[in-house]
Model the fold of this input.
Amino acid sequence: MARRGFTVKKNWDNPVEHAMPAEARVAAAVRVGAVAVRPATVLAPMAGVTDTVFRRFIRHASLFSGGQRTEIRGQGSGVRDQTAATAEGIEATISNTESGCGLLMTEFTSADGLARMRESKRRRYLTFYDDEHPIGAQLFGSNPETLAEAAHIVEETGFDLVDLNLGCPAKRVVGCNGGSGLLRDLPRIGEIFRAVRRALTIPFTVKFRMGWNDAQIVCVELARMAEGEGLNAVALHARTREQGYSGQARWEWIAAVKRAIRIPVIGNGDIRSPEDAAAMVAETGCDGVMIGRAAPANPWIFRQIAQYTATGAYETPTVEDRFGMIRTYFEMLLAEEQATRDLPRDARLGDSAGKMKQFATWFTHGVPGGAKLRAAIYQAHSGAQVLDEVNRFFAARAIDGAGRGAGAEPQGDGAIEVWPDAALVCD
Ligand SMILES: Cc1cc2nc3c(=O)[nH]c(=O)nc-3n(C[C@H](O)[C@H](O)[C@H](O)COP(=O)(O)O)c2cc1C
Done:
Protein backbone atom coordinates (compact mmCIF):
# COMPACT_ATOMS: atom_id res chain seq x y z
CA MET A 1 0.00 0.00 0.00
CA ALA A 2 1.95 2.93 -1.27
CA ARG A 3 0.37 5.53 0.90
CA ARG A 4 1.16 3.65 4.11
CA GLY A 5 4.81 4.00 3.23
CA PHE A 6 4.64 7.78 3.50
CA THR A 7 7.58 9.07 5.50
CA VAL A 8 9.14 12.42 6.18
CA LYS A 9 12.75 13.28 6.68
CA LYS A 10 13.67 13.38 10.34
CA ASN A 11 16.57 14.91 12.14
CA TRP A 12 16.92 13.95 15.74
CA ASP A 13 19.21 16.77 16.72
CA ASN A 14 16.83 19.56 15.92
CA PRO A 15 13.28 18.26 15.74
CA VAL A 16 11.60 21.64 15.49
CA GLU A 17 13.68 22.85 12.58
CA HIS A 18 13.08 19.62 10.74
CA ALA A 19 9.37 19.38 11.39
CA MET A 20 6.88 17.83 9.00
CA PRO A 21 6.42 19.43 5.57
CA ALA A 22 3.43 21.75 5.64
CA GLU A 23 1.31 19.66 3.28
CA ALA A 24 1.49 16.64 5.62
CA ARG A 25 0.95 18.47 8.87
CA VAL A 26 -2.20 17.78 10.85
CA ALA A 27 -3.38 21.34 11.44
CA ALA A 28 -2.78 22.95 14.82
CA ALA A 29 -6.43 24.01 14.82
CA VAL A 30 -9.60 23.93 12.79
CA ARG A 31 -12.55 26.19 13.46
CA VAL A 32 -15.95 24.52 13.38
CA GLY A 33 -18.33 27.47 13.62
CA ALA A 34 -17.56 29.06 16.95
CA VAL A 35 -15.71 26.01 18.24
CA ALA A 36 -11.91 25.89 17.99
CA VAL A 37 -10.78 22.29 17.59
CA ARG A 38 -7.17 22.37 18.73
CA PRO A 39 -5.32 20.40 17.40
CA ALA A 40 -7.40 19.33 14.41
CA THR A 41 -7.94 15.77 15.63
CA VAL A 42 -11.25 14.19 16.55
CA LEU A 43 -12.13 11.07 18.50
CA ALA A 44 -14.67 9.27 16.28
CA PRO A 45 -18.08 8.48 17.71
CA MET A 46 -18.17 4.78 18.58
CA ALA A 47 -21.25 3.12 20.05
CA GLY A 48 -20.40 1.02 23.08
CA VAL A 49 -17.00 2.67 23.31
CA THR A 50 -16.97 6.47 23.52
CA ASP A 51 -18.90 6.91 26.76
CA THR A 52 -17.84 9.60 29.20
CA VAL A 53 -15.25 7.41 30.90
CA PHE A 54 -13.54 6.46 27.65
CA ARG A 55 -13.64 10.02 26.35
CA ARG A 56 -11.99 11.40 29.46
CA PHE A 57 -9.51 8.56 29.39
CA ILE A 58 -8.51 9.49 25.85
CA ARG A 59 -8.15 13.16 26.77
CA HIS A 60 -6.02 12.13 29.72
CA ALA A 61 -3.84 9.81 27.64
CA SER A 62 -3.41 12.63 25.12
CA LEU A 63 -2.11 15.18 27.61
CA PHE A 64 1.30 16.57 26.84
CA SER A 65 2.22 17.30 30.43
CA GLY A 66 2.12 14.97 33.37
CA GLY A 67 2.08 11.74 31.36
CA GLN A 68 4.90 9.25 31.55
CA ARG A 69 7.54 9.95 28.97
CA THR A 70 9.19 6.96 27.47
CA GLU A 71 11.63 6.60 24.65
CA ILE A 72 11.01 8.45 21.44
CA ARG A 73 11.16 6.28 18.39
CA GLY A 74 11.22 7.39 14.81
CA GLN A 75 10.38 5.14 11.94
CA GLY A 76 13.49 3.38 10.77
CA SER A 77 15.63 4.90 13.47
CA GLY A 78 17.00 3.53 16.70
CA VAL A 79 15.55 4.37 20.05
CA ARG A 80 17.06 7.43 21.62
CA ASP A 81 16.54 8.98 24.98
CA GLN A 82 15.09 12.43 24.75
CA THR A 83 15.68 15.00 27.41
CA ALA A 84 13.02 17.01 29.19
CA ALA A 85 14.20 20.02 27.23
CA THR A 86 13.30 18.26 23.99
CA ALA A 87 9.90 17.33 25.35
CA GLU A 88 9.29 20.98 26.16
CA GLY A 89 10.42 21.85 22.68
CA ILE A 90 7.77 19.55 21.30
CA GLU A 91 5.12 21.15 23.46
CA ALA A 92 6.18 24.64 22.48
CA THR A 93 5.48 23.88 18.83
CA ILE A 94 2.00 22.55 19.43
CA SER A 95 -0.58 25.26 19.87
CA ASN A 96 -2.72 23.24 22.28
CA THR A 97 -0.48 22.51 25.22
CA GLU A 98 -3.26 20.59 26.93
CA SER A 99 -4.19 17.61 24.85
CA GLY A 100 -3.50 16.01 21.50
CA CYS A 101 -7.20 15.27 21.01
CA GLY A 102 -9.00 18.38 19.85
CA LEU A 103 -12.62 17.18 19.87
CA LEU A 104 -14.49 14.37 21.58
CA MET A 105 -17.66 12.82 20.23
CA THR A 106 -20.34 10.85 22.05
CA GLU A 107 -21.65 7.49 20.93
CA PHE A 108 -24.52 7.93 18.51
CA THR A 109 -27.87 8.47 20.18
CA SER A 110 -31.31 7.91 18.77
CA ALA A 111 -33.17 11.18 18.24
CA ASP A 112 -36.48 9.35 18.67
CA GLY A 113 -35.28 7.84 21.90
CA LEU A 114 -33.92 11.10 23.20
CA ALA A 115 -37.11 12.98 22.49
CA ARG A 116 -39.13 10.31 24.34
CA MET A 117 -36.68 9.30 27.03
CA ARG A 118 -37.09 9.82 30.73
CA GLU A 119 -34.84 12.53 32.12
CA SER A 120 -32.81 9.95 34.07
CA LYS A 121 -32.06 7.85 31.03
CA ARG A 122 -31.17 10.93 29.02
CA ARG A 123 -28.60 11.64 31.65
CA ARG A 124 -26.77 8.42 30.86
CA TYR A 125 -26.58 9.18 27.18
CA LEU A 126 -25.82 12.86 27.52
CA THR A 127 -23.54 12.91 30.56
CA PHE A 128 -20.25 14.65 30.13
CA TYR A 129 -17.79 16.37 32.42
CA ASP A 130 -16.23 19.83 32.22
CA ASP A 131 -12.88 18.49 31.06
CA GLU A 132 -14.52 17.03 27.96
CA HIS A 133 -15.03 20.36 26.19
CA PRO A 134 -15.06 20.74 23.28
CA ILE A 135 -17.46 17.84 22.83
CA GLY A 136 -20.04 17.01 20.20
CA ALA A 137 -23.11 14.81 20.57
CA GLN A 138 -24.04 12.60 17.66
CA LEU A 139 -27.66 11.90 16.76
CA PHE A 140 -29.27 9.52 14.33
CA GLY A 141 -32.82 9.42 13.06
CA SER A 142 -34.81 10.16 9.96
CA ASN A 143 -37.57 12.50 11.03
CA PRO A 144 -36.58 16.17 10.64
CA GLU A 145 -38.79 17.45 13.47
CA THR A 146 -37.69 14.78 15.91
CA LEU A 147 -34.05 15.34 15.05
CA ALA A 148 -34.54 19.09 15.53
CA GLU A 149 -36.13 18.49 18.93
CA ALA A 150 -33.33 16.15 19.98
CA ALA A 151 -30.71 18.60 18.73
CA HIS A 152 -32.30 21.29 20.86
CA ILE A 153 -32.09 19.01 23.92
CA VAL A 154 -28.40 18.44 23.15
CA GLU A 155 -27.76 22.17 22.96
CA GLU A 156 -29.62 22.80 26.22
CA THR A 157 -27.50 20.13 27.88
CA GLY A 158 -24.37 22.17 27.14
CA PHE A 159 -22.69 20.32 24.27
CA ASP A 160 -20.52 22.36 21.94
CA LEU A 161 -21.90 20.95 18.71
CA VAL A 162 -24.41 18.51 17.25
CA ASP A 163 -23.40 15.92 14.68
CA LEU A 164 -25.76 13.98 12.42
CA ASN A 165 -24.97 10.33 11.70
CA LEU A 166 -25.36 9.37 8.05
CA GLY A 167 -22.92 6.50 8.17
CA CYS A 168 -24.10 3.74 10.47
CA PRO A 169 -24.45 0.54 8.42
CA ALA A 170 -26.28 -1.47 11.13
CA LYS A 171 -29.45 -3.13 9.84
CA ARG A 172 -31.45 -2.00 12.85
CA VAL A 173 -30.62 1.65 12.13
CA VAL A 174 -30.82 1.45 8.35
CA GLY A 175 -34.14 -0.39 8.70
CA CYS A 176 -35.65 2.78 10.22
CA ASN A 177 -34.02 4.88 7.49
CA GLY A 178 -31.40 6.20 9.87
CA GLY A 179 -27.62 6.27 9.52
CA SER A 180 -26.39 5.30 6.07
CA GLY A 181 -29.96 4.40 5.06
CA LEU A 182 -30.57 8.09 4.41
CA LEU A 183 -27.81 8.23 1.83
CA ARG A 184 -30.41 6.99 -0.67
CA ASP A 185 -32.69 9.95 0.04
CA LEU A 186 -30.90 13.26 -0.44
CA PRO A 187 -34.09 15.38 -0.40
CA ARG A 188 -34.88 14.02 3.08
CA ILE A 189 -31.34 14.84 4.18
CA GLY A 190 -31.92 18.40 2.95
CA GLU A 191 -35.05 18.65 5.11
CA ILE A 192 -33.17 17.35 8.12
CA PHE A 193 -30.32 19.79 7.58
CA ARG A 194 -32.75 22.71 7.46
CA ALA A 195 -34.82 21.64 10.46
CA VAL A 196 -31.85 20.94 12.70
CA ARG A 197 -30.00 24.07 11.60
CA ARG A 198 -33.03 26.17 12.53
CA ALA A 199 -33.25 24.53 15.95
CA LEU A 200 -29.64 25.21 16.90
CA THR A 201 -27.42 28.13 17.72
CA ILE A 202 -24.35 25.91 18.26
CA PRO A 203 -22.39 24.40 15.33
CA PHE A 204 -23.97 21.56 13.37
CA THR A 205 -21.90 18.95 11.54
CA VAL A 206 -22.55 15.74 9.63
CA LYS A 207 -20.61 12.48 9.43
CA PHE A 208 -21.33 10.31 6.43
CA ARG A 209 -20.11 7.52 4.23
CA MET A 210 -19.44 7.93 0.50
CA GLY A 211 -22.80 6.53 -0.50
CA TRP A 212 -24.92 3.41 -0.32
CA ASN A 213 -22.76 1.50 -2.80
CA ASP A 214 -20.37 2.14 -5.65
CA ALA A 215 -23.24 2.79 -8.04
CA GLN A 216 -24.57 5.54 -5.78
CA ILE A 217 -21.69 7.65 -4.53
CA VAL A 218 -23.21 10.85 -3.17
CA CYS A 219 -20.58 12.27 -0.83
CA VAL A 220 -19.62 15.28 -2.96
CA GLU A 221 -23.23 16.29 -3.56
CA LEU A 222 -24.03 15.74 0.08
CA ALA A 223 -21.11 17.87 1.22
CA ARG A 224 -22.25 20.70 -1.07
CA MET A 225 -25.75 20.45 0.40
CA ALA A 226 -24.32 20.60 3.91
CA GLU A 227 -22.40 23.74 3.07
CA GLY A 228 -25.42 25.27 1.36
CA GLU A 229 -27.65 24.64 4.38
CA GLY A 230 -25.24 26.27 6.81
CA LEU A 231 -23.58 23.26 8.42
CA ASN A 232 -20.21 24.05 9.93
CA ALA A 233 -18.11 21.02 8.96
CA VAL A 234 -18.38 17.56 7.42
CA ALA A 235 -16.64 14.31 8.29
CA LEU A 236 -16.32 11.56 5.70
CA HIS A 237 -15.68 7.91 6.52
CA ALA A 238 -14.45 7.02 3.07
CA ARG A 239 -16.30 3.74 2.56
CA THR A 240 -19.72 2.92 1.17
CA ARG A 241 -22.44 1.35 3.26
CA GLU A 242 -22.10 -1.88 1.31
CA GLN A 243 -18.42 -1.98 2.09
CA GLY A 244 -19.12 -2.09 5.81
CA TYR A 245 -15.63 -2.10 7.29
CA SER A 246 -14.08 -4.19 4.56
CA GLY A 247 -11.37 -3.19 2.14
CA GLN A 248 -9.56 0.08 2.46
CA ALA A 249 -10.99 3.49 3.04
CA ARG A 250 -10.81 5.37 -0.26
CA TRP A 251 -9.18 8.60 0.72
CA GLU A 252 -9.45 9.99 -2.80
CA TRP A 253 -13.10 10.72 -1.98
CA ILE A 254 -12.05 12.80 1.01
CA ALA A 255 -9.91 14.77 -1.42
CA ALA A 256 -12.88 15.14 -3.78
CA VAL A 257 -15.08 16.47 -0.98
CA LYS A 258 -12.34 18.84 0.13
CA ARG A 259 -12.07 20.24 -3.38
CA ALA A 260 -15.84 20.77 -3.56
CA ILE A 261 -16.55 22.82 -0.42
CA ARG A 262 -15.09 25.53 1.77
CA ILE A 263 -16.31 24.45 5.19
CA PRO A 264 -13.86 22.20 7.07
CA VAL A 265 -13.54 18.58 5.97
CA ILE A 266 -12.56 15.99 8.55
CA GLY A 267 -11.09 12.82 7.05
CA ASN A 268 -11.85 9.43 8.56
CA GLY A 269 -10.99 5.83 7.85
CA ASP A 270 -8.04 3.55 8.55
CA ILE A 271 -5.75 5.90 10.45
CA ARG A 272 -3.78 3.56 12.70
CA SER A 273 -0.65 5.57 13.30
CA PRO A 274 0.73 9.12 13.17
CA GLU A 275 2.24 8.27 9.79
CA ASP A 276 -1.23 7.42 8.49
CA ALA A 277 -2.62 10.73 9.78
CA ALA A 278 0.14 12.66 7.99
CA ALA A 279 -0.43 10.64 4.84
CA MET A 280 -4.16 11.36 4.89
CA VAL A 281 -3.55 15.10 5.21
CA ALA A 282 -0.94 15.01 2.45
CA GLU A 283 -3.16 13.02 0.09
CA THR A 284 -6.48 14.73 0.70
CA GLY A 285 -5.78 18.22 2.05
CA CYS A 286 -8.34 17.54 4.79
CA ASP A 287 -8.67 20.10 7.56
CA GLY A 288 -8.66 17.58 10.37
CA VAL A 289 -8.46 13.85 11.04
CA MET A 290 -10.87 11.61 12.91
CA ILE A 291 -9.74 8.42 14.60
CA GLY A 292 -11.91 5.51 15.64
CA ARG A 293 -10.69 1.95 16.08
CA ALA A 294 -7.08 2.86 16.68
CA ALA A 295 -7.98 4.81 19.82
CA PRO A 296 -8.99 1.91 22.10
CA ALA A 297 -5.98 -0.07 20.92
CA ASN A 298 -3.57 2.83 21.25
CA PRO A 299 -4.96 5.59 23.47
CA TRP A 300 -1.73 7.56 22.99
CA ILE A 301 -2.36 8.04 19.30
CA PHE A 302 -3.53 11.64 19.56
CA ARG A 303 -0.48 12.69 21.51
CA GLN A 304 1.72 10.75 19.11
CA ILE A 305 0.17 12.57 16.14
CA ALA A 306 0.89 15.94 17.74
CA GLN A 307 4.47 14.93 18.45
CA TYR A 308 4.97 13.48 14.99
CA THR A 309 3.51 16.60 13.38
CA ALA A 310 5.87 18.80 15.34
CA THR A 311 9.05 16.76 15.12
CA GLY A 312 8.75 13.78 12.80
CA ALA A 313 9.08 11.45 15.79
CA TYR A 314 6.85 10.23 18.58
CA GLU A 315 6.91 8.34 21.83
CA THR A 316 5.90 4.71 22.02
CA PRO A 317 4.64 3.09 25.21
CA THR A 318 6.58 0.58 27.25
CA VAL A 319 4.89 -2.35 28.97
CA GLU A 320 4.85 -0.28 32.16
CA ASP A 321 3.03 2.51 30.33
CA ARG A 322 0.53 -0.03 29.07
CA PHE A 323 -0.01 -1.30 32.59
CA GLY A 324 -0.50 2.25 33.86
CA MET A 325 -2.98 2.83 31.05
CA ILE A 326 -5.01 -0.30 31.76
CA ARG A 327 -5.10 0.44 35.44
CA THR A 328 -6.07 4.08 34.94
CA TYR A 329 -8.94 3.20 32.64
CA PHE A 330 -10.24 0.46 34.92
CA GLU A 331 -10.01 2.71 37.96
CA MET A 332 -11.94 5.38 36.09
CA LEU A 333 -14.64 2.84 35.22
CA LEU A 334 -14.92 1.74 38.84
CA ALA A 335 -15.07 5.34 40.05
CA GLU A 336 -17.86 6.14 37.59
CA GLU A 337 -19.74 2.99 38.60
CA GLN A 338 -19.44 4.06 42.22
CA ALA A 339 -20.44 7.67 41.49
CA THR A 340 -23.58 6.64 39.61
CA ARG A 341 -24.55 3.76 41.94
CA ASP A 342 -27.38 5.64 43.66
CA LEU A 343 -28.87 7.08 40.49
CA PRO A 344 -31.89 5.47 38.83
CA ARG A 345 -30.89 2.31 36.94
CA ASP A 346 -31.26 4.11 33.61
CA ALA A 347 -28.65 6.68 34.54
CA ARG A 348 -25.99 4.32 35.93
CA LEU A 349 -22.81 3.47 34.13
CA GLY A 350 -23.79 -0.17 34.22
CA ASP A 351 -21.55 -3.18 34.46
CA SER A 352 -17.95 -2.06 34.71
CA ALA A 353 -16.69 -5.68 34.67
CA GLY A 354 -18.31 -6.21 31.27
CA LYS A 355 -16.64 -3.09 29.85
CA MET A 356 -13.31 -4.12 31.33
CA LYS A 357 -13.50 -7.52 29.68
CA GLN A 358 -14.33 -5.90 26.37
CA PHE A 359 -11.40 -3.53 26.63
CA ALA A 360 -8.95 -6.08 28.01
CA THR A 361 -8.87 -7.72 24.60
CA TRP A 362 -7.68 -4.53 22.98
CA PHE A 363 -5.46 -3.23 25.76
CA THR A 364 -3.42 -6.33 26.49
CA HIS A 365 -2.16 -6.97 23.01
CA GLY A 366 1.52 -6.20 22.84
CA VAL A 367 1.89 -7.13 26.51
CA PRO A 368 3.95 -10.32 26.80
CA GLY A 369 1.76 -12.88 28.57
CA GLY A 370 -1.32 -10.86 27.68
CA ALA A 371 -3.32 -13.98 26.78
CA LYS A 372 -2.89 -15.27 30.33
CA LEU A 373 -4.05 -11.96 31.74
CA ARG A 374 -7.08 -11.93 29.46
CA ALA A 375 -8.03 -15.43 30.57
CA ALA A 376 -7.84 -14.36 34.23
CA ILE A 377 -9.88 -11.22 33.54
CA TYR A 378 -12.64 -13.19 31.81
CA GLN A 379 -13.05 -15.33 34.95
CA ALA A 380 -13.58 -12.31 37.21
CA HIS A 381 -17.07 -11.46 38.45
CA SER A 382 -16.72 -7.80 39.35
CA GLY A 383 -14.80 -4.74 38.26
CA ALA A 384 -12.80 -4.80 41.48
CA GLN A 385 -11.75 -8.40 40.79
CA VAL A 386 -10.66 -7.49 37.28
CA LEU A 387 -8.51 -4.71 38.66
CA ASP A 388 -7.00 -7.13 41.21
CA GLU A 389 -6.06 -9.49 38.37
CA VAL A 390 -4.42 -6.68 36.46
CA ASN A 391 -2.44 -5.56 39.52
CA ARG A 392 -1.39 -9.13 40.33
CA PHE A 393 -0.26 -9.77 36.77
CA PHE A 394 1.92 -6.71 36.56
CA ALA A 395 3.26 -7.10 40.11
CA ALA A 396 4.43 -10.61 39.17
CA ARG A 397 6.09 -9.22 36.06
CA ALA A 398 7.91 -6.61 38.14
CA ILE A 399 9.21 -9.32 40.51
CA ASP A 400 10.37 -11.39 37.53
CA GLY A 401 12.11 -8.35 36.18
CA ALA A 402 10.21 -8.79 32.96
CA GLY A 403 9.16 -5.78 30.99
CA ARG A 404 11.97 -3.61 32.30
CA GLY A 405 13.58 -1.58 29.58
CA ALA A 406 12.57 -1.10 26.00
CA GLY A 407 13.87 -4.49 24.83
CA ALA A 408 11.26 -6.48 26.76
CA GLU A 409 8.38 -5.44 24.53
CA PRO A 410 8.01 -6.55 20.95
CA GLN A 411 8.24 -3.14 19.37
CA GLY A 412 7.86 -3.90 15.68
CA ASP A 413 8.04 -0.71 13.69
CA GLY A 414 6.78 1.43 16.53
CA ALA A 415 3.14 1.09 15.61
CA ILE A 416 0.98 -0.83 18.04
CA GLU A 417 -0.13 -3.98 16.38
CA VAL A 418 -3.61 -4.10 17.71
CA TRP A 419 -6.74 -3.89 15.71
CA PRO A 420 -10.11 -4.30 17.33
CA ASP A 421 -12.44 -6.75 15.70
CA ALA A 422 -13.34 -5.32 12.33
CA ALA A 423 -16.77 -6.90 12.58
CA LEU A 424 -17.78 -4.33 15.17
CA VAL A 425 -20.54 -2.08 14.02
CA CYS A 426 -22.26 0.90 15.51
CA ASP A 427 -25.28 -0.70 17.09
C1 LIG B 1 -17.40 -0.21 17.71
C2 LIG B 1 -17.70 0.89 16.74
C3 LIG B 1 -18.77 1.71 16.97
C4 LIG B 1 -19.06 2.75 16.08
N1 LIG B 1 -20.08 3.60 16.35
C5 LIG B 1 -20.29 4.68 15.56
C6 LIG B 1 -21.25 5.66 15.91
O1 LIG B 1 -21.93 5.57 16.94
N2 LIG B 1 -21.40 6.70 15.07
C7 LIG B 1 -20.66 6.86 13.92
O2 LIG B 1 -20.82 7.84 13.20
N3 LIG B 1 -19.74 5.95 13.58
C8 LIG B 1 -19.53 4.89 14.39
N4 LIG B 1 -18.54 4.00 14.08
C9 LIG B 1 -17.67 4.28 12.93
C10 LIG B 1 -16.44 5.12 13.35
O3 LIG B 1 -16.81 6.37 13.88
C11 LIG B 1 -15.49 5.35 12.17
O4 LIG B 1 -16.17 6.06 11.18
C12 LIG B 1 -14.98 4.04 11.57
O5 LIG B 1 -14.59 3.15 12.58
C13 LIG B 1 -13.81 4.31 10.61
O6 LIG B 1 -12.78 4.97 11.27
P1 LIG B 1 -11.48 4.17 11.83
O7 LIG B 1 -10.89 3.48 10.65
O8 LIG B 1 -10.59 5.26 12.39
O9 LIG B 1 -11.95 3.22 12.85
C14 LIG B 1 -18.26 2.95 14.93
C15 LIG B 1 -17.18 2.10 14.71
C16 LIG B 1 -16.89 1.07 15.59
C17 LIG B 1 -15.71 0.19 15.33
